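Below is our example:
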Amino acid sequence: MNDLVAKRYVKALVDGRNSETIVAISGKLNVISSAFADEKFNSIVSSPEIAVASKVDLIISLCDAAKDETLNNFIKILGEKRRLGLLPFIAKELDTQIAKMNNSYIGVVYTNQELSSDYVSSIEKQFSKKFDVKLSLSQNVCDYDGIKVDIDGLGVEISFSKERLKSQLIDHILKAV
């Protein structure tokens, strides 16, 4: 739900602005978003006992948003609507929109063992060529039994699982018999 609301705010931020301004706003929003990782900051922003104006001033002071009239007004509007908690979602969605504008995306390769950097760069080149985008892949070593490539901005997820292969092979053999 928060993502849907964040998309509307990002659309309003992006419309009618050049890419340099959008990137500058995104950088400041990412600074603000990182503050939400702190539990004390979250308790201040969500506290009903603290005035909204004080919360807005705190957030604006984090990234010198007072110099940027657009971001300053944007944060004030979020404060009036009691939606300051959406700032991390807005920052993430704005990064996604910037990636779409620049045609560059970030993806993750999930495996159960570390892959060589040459192999990851080979996957990166193949997917870049396939989807005609600039792609940067990182690795996530987890308990996934196989390999899965997830490119969030493109909405692409490609996976190969040993369990899935085994079940398809059994189905194929049973159909052949």
Notes: The helical segments are 2-14, 19-35, 39-46, 52-62, 69-80, 87-102, 117-131, 162-176. The first helix runs from residue 2 to 14. The beta strands are 104-111, 134-141, 146-151, 156-161. The CA atoms of residues 127 and 135 lie 7 Å apart.
